[in-house]
């Protein structure tokens, strides 16, 4: 079964380019982004890994760790990292999982349970379902799932935007509207009654409809 929002992110122990990790322990008390790739040395993923490395400080500011996944072994990851540095200007500055036994890919519903054999003998097309982004919270619950086709590079600025929303709405009883950017107006959550809202927002709110109560970002 595919994982969805609210599910506990499966724990696992695996080799990475930064040593062996136990996933939940590695996340610790913060947030994490796990993003997967069909194979090493694929063109779109090369650009993605480089861009993620260039904006890693933005994730770090938010208390978010990044980790990548491919079925290739660690030595392939190391060689690919050199290509990424040379072609994209920034080498991966986060661990890359070597999912050579497909364990993590299967746990996260990205490959069928019957996949086995030599991972380096599989083509990227055979692994095309390995194009996911999972955002995982400190409670180890999945907060966001994105799945992209092989021919469309992922928008990691959007992942940052969503994390800003997730972290804000986890602390305050609000929701964020379409096209919201950090600092923009928010919507009072439907779980908050008007009476409760008056206590929290004594200056009131804009309400184009009774169920749309707009206030400045907390």
From TrEMBL:
List the active-site residues. Answer: 45 (cysteine sulfenic acid (-soh) intermediate)
Q: Name one GO biological process term.
A: cellular response to stress
Give a yes or no for keyword Oxidoreductase in this entry: yes
SUPFAM superfamilies, alphabetized: Thioredoxin-like
In terms of Pfam families, this protein maps to:
1-cysPrx_C, AhpC-TSA
Q: Where is the Thioredoxin domain?
A: 3-168
Listed GO MF terms: thioredoxin peroxidase activity
Q: Which InterPro entries match?
A: AhpC/TSA, Peroxiredoxin, Peroxiredoxin_AhpC-typ, Peroxiredoxin_C, PRX_1cys, Thioredoxin-like_sf, Thioredoxin_domain
Which of UniProt's keywords are assigned here? Antioxidant, Oxidoreductase, Peroxidase, Redox-active center
- A GO CC term assigned to this protein in UniProt: cytosol
Q: What does the similarity note say?
A: Belongs to the peroxiredoxin family. Prx6 subfamily.
What function is annotated for this protein?
Thiol-specific peroxidase that catalyzes the reduction of hydrogen peroxide and organic hydroperoxides to water and alcohols, respectively. Plays a role in cell protection against oxidative stress by detoxifying peroxides.
Q: What is this protein called?
A: Peroxidase
Supply the source organism for this entry: Candidatus Aeolococcus gillhamiae
